[in-house]
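Q: My labmate handed me this sequence with no annotations at all. I'd like to see what the chain might look like in three dimensions before we decide whether it's worth expressing. Could you predict it?
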Amino acid sequence: MRAAVLHETGQDKLEVLDDVEAVGFGPGKVRVRVRATGLCHSDLSAMNGVLPQPAPFVPGHEGAGEVTEVGEGVTHVKPGDRVVICWLPACGACPSCKRGQTELCLAGFMNAGTPNFRRPGGDVFGFAGTGTFAEEVVVAAGCAVPVPDDVPFDIAALIGCGVTTGLGAALNTADVEAGSSVAVIGCGGVGISAIQGARLKGAAEIVAVDPVASRREAALRFGATRAVAPDELADAKQSVTAGEGFDYVFEVVGKSATARTAYDHTRRGGTLVVVGAGAMDDHLQLNMFELFFDEKRILPSMYGGGDVLRSYERTIALWRAGRIDLEGLITHRVPLAGINEALDQMRSGTALRTCIEI
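A: Here is what I predict for the chain of 358 residues:
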């Protein structure tokens, strides 16, 4: 089968090969024919080493497809079912799961260290234990989440990561208060989803911050009340909040510099929500006086900060009701053979989400 492979961490191009085999099928596993997958910035971060991932590997973790085979003991899906690939499945038994913080379950991360694929030259890993830039994947049963047949594959794929992460940051982690002021720094697919979540919660002012003009224009279509370049944020803070700072600021870039900017533009007693996935050696510096004196809440948001399965169901319900726009997030479509074109679109900021049709 075909799959896009990164041979070494640090390379900026993927090679689409036709000699890749999905391996590991057996009890408790599900084989999925991938039909669509989104390109998430985390894929780029894994390729350049910001996020740890053994290589060689097949990137991709935001995918959807149909079940072709189920292993012994799998009862929640059957061949022919439409599924979202969940890259962070909950085991249900660890301390985090028992506390109801299933997004903190580490079981899914353990899958990342086991090869998902094989080539004549040796084993190949799947990013985050999945690897959806491939025609087929074999995943643990919990990674295959059934969705109704009326949800198109491209929409289902977005629910698998970016939309769930952004919406959840606003709905679960921040629990944005109606009438509040919000700033979102970084307006790709995840940031736009956070904007939609803040709008759903009734935020009065939503300021979108991004250096790319087309993304700022898109943010206004998705519910932002104004959109500014990064060097205009201070002026927006002054005009919207009389200089006090925003009630909520979402950092959706994953860098200490933007997190520091977000902190500085959060009002005293306000909430900074860290959504972007950053590097282990990139440190956010705060002095102990400001941490105490400003009493700002700093809330990291992992995969939307809530139960993933419930979040999927909620997102589908909101989409069906016309309360959120998912189709509009897909600004570009390419076949698997054009995966490097999709990477360029992500790096340049021209795409909110590129759908790779497989």
